[in-house]
Specification:
Helix 1 (15-23) packs parallel to helix 9 and helix 4 (129-148) runs antiparallel to helix 5. It is built from eleven helices and 25 strands. 45% of the residues are buried. Helix content is 31%, strand content 23%. Strand 14 and strand 15 form a beta hairpin. A six-stranded mixed beta sheet has the order 5-2-1-9-21-20, with helices on one face. A four-stranded parallel beta sheet has the order 13-12-11-17. Strands 6-7-8 form a three-stranded antiparallel beta sheet. With 431 residues, it is α/β, with parallel strands linked by helices. The longest helix has 20 residues, at 129-148. The N and C termini lie far apart (55 Å).
């Protein structure tokens, strides 16, 4: 009688979970990948959906399509609510259980508001397609409302956009919002102009892009200000409400606030009854296994682990992909009966961030790039890592069009009767 194949369950179809599944291609195992959405999302370009440079279909792909050639993989669209460690089963929202012999937890991160969760309704973050299309609608509706507004103060608030957090996401959003505003307002409205646009980037630290070298941070700060972004450094946010944001001793009246200041891990640590760090990430062994449970491997933003130099492994896509591939390698080794230590070694590829459509900064450690050369390197790298060849072509063409003309083709507001207070539903339109 043929023995059943080992059951490998992967929670999460992001970079880490997808890399683990793909690394198990051809293995004599039964893989089940569970995600509450049906698509894999290329998060590094999500801000471009939010600012109408790209359409949702250009940065996301159905997970089933990506894994369609792997006969040993089943994809389930379901919401995980817990893990029964004793019974070795993943618990789904409908009460059903998915048994496993090996479990890979790759559930990613979510927005963190430092104990002020009530701010989320006024300052959405950017983690999902729904977030991106919601933010895009807020931006475009603000322009439309400003065109109709007759009160000067109210119009200024509508055309003021606050971004909280000056990491890569905040910096990229700030530059993109400026360029979206200029492309949208020039010659297309009659009562408002690009000169009326105001973008304010608020950061609690004393410089932008803390993960980059100080000289690249200084270059980024100058480039943002040259672009027209107002950068407020050393300013901690005190309050956010429907009318604006308070920081330091200042009050900014605005109807559009975007949160890029912090993230927290998923609830995986609670599911596993595991020790977690301050951000909620699971503290794992050197090989990414859960202490006391070698059958459970935690990867990506869900795991708390440091490099041999003592620095925390960053929550970026390359780190998640490397961890997912390592998880698969570890599983295959253990199934072969190989019990030798296999610690995770993260290879840092560098830090990248764009500043508008013609400038970027790249920090490879010993090598640093900035300006338009860095922008081209950034663009080539991101196009290369897109999953689908068709998307690489479409994204490259979209960027080239924006580079040459400044025009963004995804500036569609669907559900035309929607108001600023209406539910913000996900939309998908042709670019």
């Amino acid at each position: 009688m043929t023995s059943p194949k080992p059951r490998i369950v992967i929670i999460g179809g992001g970079f880490g979970g997808l890399a683990a599944a793909q690394k198990l291609a051809g293995a004599n195992v039964a893989v089940t990948l569970i995600d509450r959405r049906n698509h894999h999302l290329f998060q590094p370009l999500l801000y471009q959906v939010a600012t109408a440079a790209l359409s949702p279909s250009e940065v996301a792909w159905p997970i089933r399509h990506i894994l369609r050639k792997q006969d040993n993989v089943q994809v389930l669209m379901a919401t995980v609510v817990g893990v029964d460690i004793n019974q070795r089963a993943v618990i789904l929202e409908d009460g059903s259980h998915v048994p496993y012999d090996k479990l890979v937890v790759a559930t990613g991160a979510q927005h963190a508001y430092f104990g002020k969760d009530e701010w989320e309704q006024f300052a959405p973050g950017l983690k999902t397609l729904e977030d991106a299309t919601s933010i895009r609608r807020r931006l475009l509706l603000a322009f439309e409302a400003a065109e109709r507004e007759t009160n000067a103060e109210a119009r200024r608030a509508l055309l003021t956009f606050a971004i909280i957090g000056a990491g890569p996401t905040g910096v990229e959003m700030a530059g993109a919002v400026v360029e979206l505003g200029r492309a949208s307002l020039k010659d297309q409205f009659r009562n408002i102009t690009p000169a009326d646009l105001r973008v304010v980037l608020i950061e609690g630290a004393d410089r932008v892009l803390l993960n980059f070298s100080p000289d690249l941070s200084a270059y980024t700060l100058k480039s943002l200000r040259d672009l027209g972004v107002e950068v407020e450094l050393g300013q901690m946010v005190k309050a956010i409400d429907a009318d604006g944001v308070s920081f330091g001793d200042k009050r900014l009246l605005t109807k559009t606030i975007i949160w890029a200041a912090g993230v927290a891990a998923s609830p995986a640590a609670k599911w596993l009854d595991a020790e977690a760090d301050k951000a909620g990430r699971v503290k794992v062994n050197a090989d990414l296994t859960l202490p006391g449970h070698p059958e459970i491997i935690v990867v990506g933003d869900t795991a708390s682990i440091s490099t041999p130099e003592g620095k925390p492994v960053p929550g970026v896509a390359p780190a998640a992909k490397q961890a997912g591939a390592h998880a698969a390698q570890l599983i295959l080794a253990r199934l072969r009966g190989d019990a030798s230590p296999l610690p995770f070694r993260y290879a840092h590829a560098g830090d990248l961030a764009t500043i508008g459509k013609r400038s970027a900064v790249i920090d490879f450690g010993t090598t640093k790039l900035k300006g338009w050369i860095a922008w081209w390197v950034w663009g080539i790298a991101h196009i290369y890592f897109l999953v689908d060849f068709k998307n690489r072509i479409f994204v490259a063409m979209s960027w080239l069009w924006i580079y040459l003309t400044g025009q963004r083709s995804s500036r569609l507001i669907t559900h035309g009767m929607a108001t600023e207070k209406a539910p913000l539903e996900e939309v998908d339109e042709a670019g």
